[in-house]
Amino acid sequence: MAQDIESTLIEKRVFPPSAEFARGAEVKSMDEYERLYARAAADLEGFWAEEARRLDWMQPFTEVLDESKAPFVRWFADGKLNISANCLDRHLAARADKPALVWIGEPGERRTLSYRELHTEVCKAANALTELGVGAGDRVAVYLPMIPELAISLLACARIGATHSVIFGGFSDTAIRDRVNDSSCKLIITADGGWRRGKIVPLKATVDAALEHGCPSVEKVLVVTRTRETVPMVEARDVRWETVVPLASAECPPVALEAEHPLFILYTSGTTGKPKGVVHSTGGYAVGAQYTTRLVFDLRDDDVYWCTADVGWVTGHSYVVYGPLMNGATTVMFEGAPDFPDKDRFWDIIEREKCTILYTAPTAIRAFMRWGDQFPERHDLSSLRLLGTVGEPINPEAWMWYRRVIGGDRCPIVDTWWQTETGAIMITPLPGATPTKPGSCTRPLPGIFADVVDKEGRSCGNNAGGYLVIRRPWPSMLRTVWGDAERYVKTYFSEIFVDGKALYFAGDGARRDEDGYFWVMGRIDDVLNVAGHRLGTMEIESALVGHVDVAEAAVVGRPDELKGQAVVAFVTLKSGRVASAAVKDALRAHVVKEIGALARPEEIRFTDALPKTRSGKIMRRLLKEIAAGGEVKGDVTTLEDVAVLNRLSAADEE
Ligand code: PRX
Questions:
Q1: What CA–CA distances, in Å, run from 512 to 151, 261, 466, 624, 651?
Q2: Do the bridges between strand 220-224 and strand 187-191 make them parallel or antiparallel, or are there none, so unpaired?
Q3: 284 contacts: CB under 8 Å, gap ≥ 6
Q4: 518 vs 17, 412, 496, CA distance in Å?
Q5: Which of 276, 280, 534 has most ligand 1 atoms within 8 Å of CB, for mutation?
Q6: pLDDT tier for residue 271 given thresholds of 50, 70 and 90
Q7: pLDDT tens, 630-650?
Q8: What is the rounded distance in angstroms from the CA atom of residue 619 to the CA atom of residue 625?
Q9: For the chain, which residues make up each domain, given as ranges?
Q10: Are the beta carbons of 609 and 644 closer than 8 angstroms?
Q11: 243: Cβ contacts below 8 Å, ≥ 6 apart
């Protein structure tokens, strides 16, 4: 209770940007923000066309937005460009020697690549990929640790028009197989291993296991040497990066690609058992990533910008690689964990590299808070001028701690709301303009028409909870779900209609306060957000029921102080199987094998039946309440067997 009152008091506080920060920013006041917003509202196409013209086009576009086949939209469709040229070539005249990428390995190595050097590496890698048979329109899977070759691989694919599909290094061999097969990848780029908390993550071995399960489309595996562990190489299939890339020519003209050419696929969890391949375009995505990085992070030429996200997630795509490089920034990339070798690793990096911008996740901030102020206090963090958060709602206490302890009460915080599907930041403060409130992502960016609506698509009144929707298309929106256009429509454009037209809805609930500020409440579908990672409850359930002992499973989220949500599984065993700690361990291991360690259930509760409605739907709301340890409230008359519920409530962990 005391905590709640405190949160409410903090939420009511407002932090305007300092006059000094505002002076140097591109958008300097709320008046300017409102003007930009109104301009985009009055002329959406003109607004975005102007933004798009900041990029280098190999063939200028004459069309801006084509909505004739909505929700399948096209942006800048008759224009041609190459995003790698926008990240690299166009900076060579003015900033060839400026560091583009500053990389820090977990064991402590440091490597800097200037724009010129990164350009050379990307050209060589692009030529090597071509030699290995990859061309425009092919898919390339990337399963790498956070090393420079990861950024190089993305840009090399983009340079030749191959569509990349990055698979986060925490996913298992089964998860790799499913993703590789779904989009028929021709080649996989991986490494012998990566470093995580002093241990080697055996990436190549996991890829080998994935290929053993059967990935018929894969012709080659390109293996970067990172840890120098001996890894078996399969003849004719596996090729070492260092035997092809350094020898390749450094001349590689970028391919002129249509704006709608698919730049990348990124798999993300939804409400079914199968992850969706979210497809992003080249031109619209480039415009969105460039625009948001410039405005939200208020980038200046002398910034040292660090986004701590892994490139395995969309945040790493847009805000470690493409956004900062298109803007000619210096982007920092770190391979390891925040607590290795000690819990001050981030602060050590900020001090050494003199980082000016830090963009990280609320889960990390909550962990830092718990570890204690002594770790940041060991370091000089005065280089920082701007802080950001992404991936989940941030609780006001963590926001205040971040502001005070890391930001020295002087750095604005941008709490950025967006999704894999949106490609780029959507709702966020502009650091020189927007007065911030702890816990609110504030207002939509100019050009983004976000709203909170009811089922009928009517805007909700102040502080009334509803569905967070986007009313108009935006350039960096996803274009489809790979190989499943129907699923694209069904998932994102089938919930809320206005005048027969579907609004984009991707699963979040929100409210808007009297100042028009958005407060995102989190997912209202069956998607969990565990430590900022998105997981489908159905995906974990189907992994569990794939185990020989399991008859039925239901997975829900439980509020978790550190991770936001924790995975709780209710499991019914097949008759004759006996619940035990050993079975629990086996089930956990099975989920890790099927999906990856990030999906490991925190808690498994055995039950002899699951509560269901008469139509057979599992009553998740009740399970959520049980998982949270709360009392079961509300109407249970639709329950098939109330006794089941009572037994569940009473059942202890075993
Ligand atoms: O629920 C929202 C939450 O993360 C979801 C998107 O997850 P993903 O596609 O993995 O992308 C994460 C990085 C962009 C959203 O539907 N989310 C993201 N940012 C915020 C957030 N929730 C509240 N506040 C945020 N700033």
A1: 38, 36, 9, 26, 40
A2: parallel
A3: 75, 76, 259, 260, 423, 474, 475, 476, 477
A4: 18, 18, 19
A5: 534
A6: confident
A7: 666 666 666 666 677 777 766
A8: 10
A9: 43-337, 450-523, 527-650
A10: yes
A11: none
Does the beta carbon of 419 lie inside 6 Å of ligand 1?
yes
Ligand 1 pocket test: which of 311, 390, 425 has the largest number of ligand atoms within 8 Å of its C-beta? Answer: 390
Give the position of tokens 């260092």: 242
Asked if 505 and 495 count as a contact pair (C-beta separation under 8 A), the reply is yes
The finding on whether 418 has its CB within 6 A of some atom of ligand 1 is yes
Nearest ligand 1 atom to alpha carbon 313: 10
What does the pLDDT look like over 100-157, one tens digit per residue? 999 999 999 999 999 999 999 999 999 999 999 999 999 999 999 999 999 999 999 9
> pLDDT, tens digit, for every residue of 65-92?
999 999 999 999 999 999 999 999 999 9
Annotate 120-165 with three-state secondary structure. Answer: HHHHHHHHHHHHCCCCCCCEEEEECCCCHHHHHHHHHHHHHCCEEE
Amino acid identity of residue 331, one-letter, is: T
| Superfamily in which the 450-523 domain is placed by CATH | Luciferase; Domain 3 (2.30.38.10)
pTM as predicted: 0.94
Atom number, ligand 1, closest to the C-alpha of residue 393: 23
CA dist 570 and 496 (Å) reads 32
Asked: is 527-650 a CATH 1.10.287.90 domain? The reply is: no
Ligand 1 center from residue 390 Cα (angstroms) = 7
pLDDT in tens, 500-516: 899 999 899 999 999 99
Fold of 43-337: Rossmann fold (3.40.50)
H or E element in which residue 209 lies? helix 203-212
Rounded to the nearest 5°, which phi and psi values hold at 508? Answer: -100, 145
pLDDT average, residue stretch 5-32: 88
Query: Residue length, the chain?
Result: 654
pLDDT for the residue numbered 631 = 63
Q: Is 521 exposed, middle or buried (0-12, 13-18, 19+ CB in 10 A)?
A: middle
Cβ atoms 40, 32 nearer than 8 A: no
In this predicted structure, what is the pLDDT of residue 518? 98
